[in-house]
Fold:
Amino acid sequence: MGSYRDLDIYQKAHQLGLDCHHVSMELPKYELYETGSQLRRASKSVSANIVEGYGRRRYKAEFIKHLIYSHASCDETIEWLTYISTLHPAISDKVQPLMELANITGSSINKFIQSVIKTHNEF
Structure:
């Protein structure tokens, strides 16, 4: 393995965090520090946990634990996007592609977790 930046799941997760950040800034002012903040935190946590897990990849259990945290943050991101889509239909057209990216990212993380479980050897 090279850098975590080479991982497809990291690239998708990082893009998800960036895209969610931009969309969250389009929320009404009263939502910027409530729902918007939660979305930004959850979506950025997806890639951050991949990075932290990768840094601990020497220890299989630590690597897997952080990948599971990443997957959970991805699920949380989907939940916040669902709230935004329902409560703010004016921007729901911008939320739908993010939901698709989050679902693809979550599926990719899950597959990566299964791969690490099967093939990772501690060094």
Remarks:
- The chain is about 80% helix and 0% strand.
- Residues 4-118 form a domain with the de novo design (two linked rop proteins) fold (CATH 1.20.1440.60).
- The two ends are 13 Å apart (CA to CA).
